């Protein structure tokens, strides 16, 4: 096998990132050499050569025609893979979140997420607007990336010009609106507007003892 030059290490890292992104979008399935070749404008043979070289260098495992990374292997157990985000979601006034990055991925048993499937993310909560829903400042909320919202769901919503916020999704004769679950607040303060985009639906709250 023709050796891969050291300057190709950057391309190997890009291929590894593509493989994990592909797995996230395809519920743990890894791309074929053909798909890798199409993504990076190379032949199937060249893609195969890179995978073998990446395996030899410990960037991933490639054996018997199967790609293994930590993320792919987590998907292929009875687990959901959750992405931990670097920014917090305000349970108070909305806050600007420009570039929310995934710090790490970790597995949770499917039973903890009610057997749901899809993309899940976890963000720390700041603020006290959802205390009467059992969500306190410092908790971590796991939400499913979904906008098929039902009335009564607790959602992560984006308000144009203000940012992301965690609130109850409600409806009245005028349409949907966001509502804070803090009975010590006035109704005017609890109402968080009607112009927003749902980013995800909260499915689990995690607390420290």
From TrEMBL:
Among InterPro entries, the record links this protein to:
LexA-like, LexA/Signal_pep-like_sf, LexA_repressor, Peptidase_S24_S26A/B/C, WH-like_DNA-bd_sf, WH_DNA-bd_sf
Give all residue intervals belonging to the Peptidase S24/S26A/S26B/S26C domain: 87-201
Q: What Pfam families does the entry give?
A: Peptidase_S24
What's this protein's name?
Repressor LexA
Upper taxonomic lineage: Bacteria, Bacillati, Bacillota, Clostridia, Eubacteriales
């Amino acid at each position: 096998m023709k050796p891969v030059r050291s300057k190709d290490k950057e391309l190997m890292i890009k291929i590894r990132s593509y493989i994990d992104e592909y797995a996230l979008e395809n519920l743990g399935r890894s791309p074929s050499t053909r798909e890798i070749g199409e993504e990076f404008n190379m032949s199937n043979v060249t893609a195969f050569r890179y995978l073998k070289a990446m395996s030899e260098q410990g960037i991933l495992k490639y054996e018997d025609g199967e790609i293994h990374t930590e993320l792919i292997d987590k998907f292929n157990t009875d687990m959901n893979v959750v992405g931990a985000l670097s920014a917090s979601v305000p349970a108070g006034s909305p806050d600007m979140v420009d570039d929310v990055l995934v710090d790490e991925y970790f597995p949770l048993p499917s039973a903890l997420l009610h057997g749901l499937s899809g993309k899940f993310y976890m963000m720390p909560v700041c603020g006290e607007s959802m205390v009467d829903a059992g969500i306190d400042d410092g908790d971590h909320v796991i939400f499913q990336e979904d906008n098929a919202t039902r009335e009564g769901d607790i959602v992560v919503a984006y308000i144009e010009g203000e940012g992301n916020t965690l609130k109850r999704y409600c409806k009245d004769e005028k349409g949907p609106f966001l509502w804070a679950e803090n009975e010590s607040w006035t109704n005017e303060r609890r109402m968080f507007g009607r112009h927003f985009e749902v980013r995800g639906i909260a499915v689990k709250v995690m607390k420290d003892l």
